Amino acid sequence: MIEQNNTKEILIEKLQNRSARVAILGLGYVGLPLAVVFAEAGFKVTGIDPDRRKVDTVLRGESYIQDIPGEQVKRLVSAGSLTATTSFSVLEEMDAVSICVPTPLRKTGDPDLSYILSATDELAKFMHSGMVVVLESTTYPGTTREILLPKLEEKHNLQAGKNFFLAFSPERVDPGRQDWTTLNTPKVIGGITRDCTDVATVWYQQALQAVVPVSSTEVAEMAKLLENTFRMINIGLVNEMAIMCDRLGVDVWEVIDAAATKPFGFMKFTPGPGLGGHCIPIDPLYLSWKLRALNYTARFIELASEINTGMPRHVVGKIQDALNEDGKPIKGSRILVLGVAYKPDIDDLRESPALDVIGLLKQKGAIVSYHDPFIPRLNHEDWGMESVPDLIDAVRQTDCVVIVTNHSQYDYTRLLEAAPLIVDTRNALGKAQRDNPKIVRL
Ligand SMILES: NC(=O)c1ccc[n+]([C@@H]2O[C@H](COP(=O)([O-])OP(=O)(O)OC[C@H]3O[C@@H](n4cnc5c(N)ncnc54)[C@H](O)[C@@H]3O)[C@@H](O)[C@H]2O)c1
After folding, report:
1. Is the CB–ligand 1 distance for residue 48 below 6 Å?
2. Which atom of ligand 1 is nearest to the CA of 174?
3. Which of 13, 104, 217, 321 could form an S-S bond across to 168 if both were Cys, CB 3.0 to 4.6 Å?
């Protein structure tokens, strides 16, 4: 008991006086912003990533994450507050470790925990008394307790809550967003024990504006999945509304705007060409996978997933119909896709529905090109495509323009003037153009 209190108190003191050494495992979209936030708060932070290019970029004082300015990385690296390495052995000197590695799906649709497993195995080698470890990667409830805990305790005969502290804290970063960032978005934290929650909370409170402690790792893990499942299901619902409105000949965008005038009990979601990004299309499937093992079918998730993954095909159907009206088959038609990032104003292509839309159009024999100011090259499936150099010129030479991602820098008035036909999956052209015969909306 005395050891427990001492270890906890000593670590808390080190965290409060910033002498604790911080390591971030995984310097991606989540890890680099977190490393920067801790470094800005006065900690000495080491980012550890097997990707040498990322490590070298940080060491040069540059940034590869759009939301993190290069000058900020440069300043922190020059000041000695931030460094990076591919070597895990530095973990030996670390007091506080946050794990921000990817959690994708396998081709079979099952969770791929291989990155969490390899990061935990590396960390386990260098575990020592007086450490706090926080898992940030989105995963199914039970991962921290069932996977991390035994690995981290086993090697050096440590005990969580006694001589080290283990917690889960889901990342909520929304890339490209300026108002809510890693710094000011409230952070949920749940530990393996009460002391684990306490220590992890103290650590994060030193750098983040609001920390929300909860009673267990499972609550924190499940809270993240509730957030993402909520979004996925509501997007699925509004996508199905779009399909139903299409059959009924009703303008879904007008319907949504009308419903959104209700000041309570309604939250506006908008339809689109499908789900994208690392989180919303994937994370709820971690939950449904876990529940399948418990003989339960997560029906809302499965249904929403089915509707959302069907949206690129629905969009291609709209393109086909629109070309048909112009007396053209899809085969051999020149189709220009605008925006391939999974959402506006970012350079992230992961799970982007544009990839499915382009793939389906190619399958049908269309001559597809694309433009995206954030994504100059598209090597998906060895396509070897490059963003067209002159947008308006390309728009003039095409049979159909498809707005998949509504980047804010596009001049939609000019696009509309130049294009013979536009399929607008995001209502980027707005309701003023509702009756324009050149435009087909979702
Ligand atoms: N990107 C987002 O918007 C977002 C938002 C909320 C939550 N998340 C979750 O955060 C986690 C990380 O996502 P991300 O977008 O930062 O991924 P990412 O792919 O951008 O970055 C992950 C980094 O981890 C590194 N890595 C791989 N194996 C490693 C290992 N064994 N040890 C150390 N580093 C390793 C990779 O090289 C990569 O640089 C995921 O679970 C994701 O679901 C992401």
Report:
1. yes
2. 3
3. 217
pTM of model > 0.90:
yes
- What is the chain's length? 442
Pocket test for ligand 1, best of 49, 144, 172, 185 (most atoms within 8 A of CB): 49
Residues that are catalytic: 279
Q: How far is the CA of 419 from the centre of ligand 1 (A)?
A: 39
In short, whether 138's Cβ falls inside 6 Å of ligand 1 is: yes
Q: For ligand 1, what atom is nearest to the CA of residue 172?
A: 6
Q: What is the pLDDT along the chain (442 residues), one digit of tens a residue?
A: 455 569 999 999 999 999 999 999 999 999 999 999 999 999 999 999 999 999 999 999 999 998 999 999 999 999 999 999 999 999 999 999 999 999 998 888 889 999 999 999 999 999 999 999 999 999 999 999 999 999 999 988 999 999 999 999 999 988 888 899 999 999 999 999 999 999 999 999 999 999 999 999 999 999 999 999 999 999 999 999 999 999 999 999 999 999 999 999 999 999 999 998 888 888 899 999 999 999 999 999 999 999 999 999 999 999 999 999 999 999 999 999 999 999 999 999 999 999 999 999 999 999 999 999 999 999 898 899 999 999 999 999 999 999 999 999 999 999 999 999 999 999 999 876 778 899 999 9
* Residue with CA nearest ligand 1 atom 28: 115
Q: Which atom of ligand 1 is nearest to the CA of 138?
A: 41
Q: Residue 181: CB within 6 Å of ligand 1?
A: no
